[in-house]
Amino acid sequence: MLELNDIHTFYGPIEALKGITLKVNQGEIVCLIGNNGAGKSTTLMAISGILKPKAGTISFIGSDISDMPPHSIVERGISHVPEGRRIFPRLTVKENLEMGAYTVGSRTNKNKKLKSQFDKVYEMFPVLRERERQMGGTLSGGEQQMLAISRALMSEPKLLLLDEPSLGLAPIIVSRIFKAIQEINQEGVTILLVEQNAHAALNLSGRGYVLENGRIKMHGQGKELLNSEEVKKAYLGE
Ligand SMILES: Nc1ncnc2c1ncn2[C@@H]1O[C@H](COP(=O)(O)OP(=O)(O)OP(=O)(O)O)[C@@H](O)[C@H]1O
Ligand SMILES: [Mg+2]
User: Fold this and answer.
1) What is the three-class DSSP state of 118?
2) Which of 47, 50, 107, 157 is least buried, going by the fewest C-beta atoms within 10 A?
3) Which atom in ligand 1 lies closest to the alpha carbon of residue 194?
4) Which bin fits 218, alpha (ψ -120 to 50), beta or left (φ > 0)?
5) How much distance in Å is there from the Cα of 106 to the middle of ligand 1?
6) Nearest one of 19, 18, 44 to 31, comparing CA atoms
7) 24: number of CA atoms within 13 Å, CB side?
8) pLDDT tens digit string along 116-126?
9) Is residue 70 classed as helix, strand or coil in its secondary structure?
């Protein structure tokens, strides 16, 4: 479904990605783990078109998306939940969700389509329906993460990019979020997940890639990586 081939990305003179090659098959949950500064967020930004690679290609369902602007990439079916959530604090929950749905439906069926999208995300996170009229910025951290994920789902993505959805959340909320990720996947959305919480992420994922210093250091089945001595020592604190 998604293929990155030898991606190189720079911030000014700094080469953040030094040749990333990876693929995600339809229906998978794939995780990217690695230490701070390894290039995980940069990889997601390259895929969603926020940061254009200097070299290499990215293809998605048979099309080269490397040179496409971010909005065209959203239209093709990739949605990105950035690190730190970045919801609109001064818009209501409902307005935040509407912002995620700007590509949804044609002029004639937009309202009907929107309603069914709202129903879907409210079913997954009922608390958002309760807080529909509340300003995004007044939600708790966990609720903001649920809103950020829901906003990304409003465009009916085929592939969802999630950047550290568990960051800074209480364990009980983290398990709620991970359960939601599983549900989203079961409904047919392919997922590329970046996580510091390597244990939980590898448990959830079919496959994983370990990034180090802008390169892929290892990749394999989630279970394989969980049992690898190297991964245990460096990323699982065992
Ligand atoms: N806006 C920027 N300007 C300059 N360098 C940057 C910028 N953003 C990231 N970098 C550098 O690029 C490298 C990769 O950063 P990236 O944010 O992708 O890492 P990460 O794996 O997501 O880390 P973290 O776990 O801390 O979120 C780091 O060395 C970082 O310092
Ligand atoms: Mg990051």
Assistant:
1) helix
2) 107
3) 22
4) beta
5) 38
6) 44
7) 29
8) 889 999 999 99
9) helix
| Six token digits for residue 174 | 């983290």
Q: Tokens at residue 10, please?
A: 């720079």
CATH 3.40.50.300 fits 2-235, yes or no: yes
Closest CA to 131 of 91, 94, 180: 94
Encode pLDDT of 137-190 as tens digits. 999 999 999 999 999 999 999 999 999 999 989 999 999 999 999 999 999 999
List Cβ neighbours of 237 (8 Å cut-off, separation of 6 or more): none
Cα(210)–Cα(112) distance, integer angstroms: 42
Ligand 1: nearest atom to the Cα of 34: 21
Burial of residue 56, with CB atoms counted within 10 A of its CB: 0-12 exposed, 13-18 middle, 19 or more buried: middle
Sequence-distant (6+) residues with CB within 8 A of 64 are 57, 58
Mean pLDDT, the chain, whole residue set: 93
Contacts 24+ apart (CB under 8 A), 104-107: 104/154, 104/155, 104/156
Distance 18 CA to ligand 2 centre (A): 16
